[in-house]
# Entry
Amino acid sequence: MDIIGKSSCKNDIDLLLDLMPDFLRDTDIKSQQAPSILVDTLRSQMNWMTFENEGLSLKRYNPLRPFILRYNSYYMDKYISNELDSRFASTGYSRGKLRDQTSQASQGMDVAFKILAMNQIKLFLFSGHDTTSSSICYIFYLLLIHPAILKRVRDEHNKIFGYDISQAAALITEDPYLINQLPFTVAVIKESTRLFPAASSTRAGEPDFYIKDNGRQYPTNNTIVWLISHATHHDPSLWPHPDKFLPDRWLSPPADPLHPVKGAWRPFEYGPRSCIGQELSMIEMKTVMVLTFREFDFRAGYEELDMMKPRKGLKTVEGERAYQMAMGQPSGNLPCRVSIAK
# Structure
């Protein structure tokens, strides 16, 4: 909270990049307080990514791009490699068998496993930090335009954690299970990620699997099937009032028309291929809400942004100013003003 108070406009991606290594390896990279080579190179790598649907991309054909990507990969791998070596040296395990520290130090980590672990950690950091931070942005946005729902969230937090906001972090540290006693907070998260899912998913087509639509049947063999969560989440046949922010639908009994249809909520996908980081993401979002919503007030800054950087053309999509961009983030990166709550 001290960090937010000092720099209210700090990107919450830094927060997620601080949290995730804590969960992965009990490492605090302190990216909210000082530059981090891991964070800087990861961000640079993402900025230089290109996709096939971008058409003619000057970025893709920039002669510096291969060198920048190689530079970023080298320093990310070096950082993660050092962390893995440190972790390996601090345990008594080597290739699955308990060994004494002398034997372990001389043998080192299996090279093939280390490369696999490094790639998986980079994938986990890349896949998890930006999606969760975008979801947190939309939770803030939806609550600032729905003050009555924000009040209910704050009342729930007061009930579980007491009215002394400064004690919330200590209470969570002392009893982490308190974070699971927030049904309305969870309902807000689910409804926000329903309206603005941060990611989608793909599946490999099969010879005997067909997509049916309006009486027509389409084969999927030798194709990639792209599952668009946003379309599913706004389908009126699955969701009554699909474009309304109604957290209470998640607390409604099964007989209520608002009660969600099983399998229709898919921000983390569904079934055996659901996101491995779903629980971590939910914990992060609940924790951020508990530690910020009662201490700070937020106000959207789109009007100020438009005055500072006027531009022509459409500014809304289906009436929504904070529409989602290609990578799931709110338009304009959700400019806002943050102040101490009154």
Summary: The first helix runs from residue 2 to 6. The first strand starts at residue 93 and ends at 94.
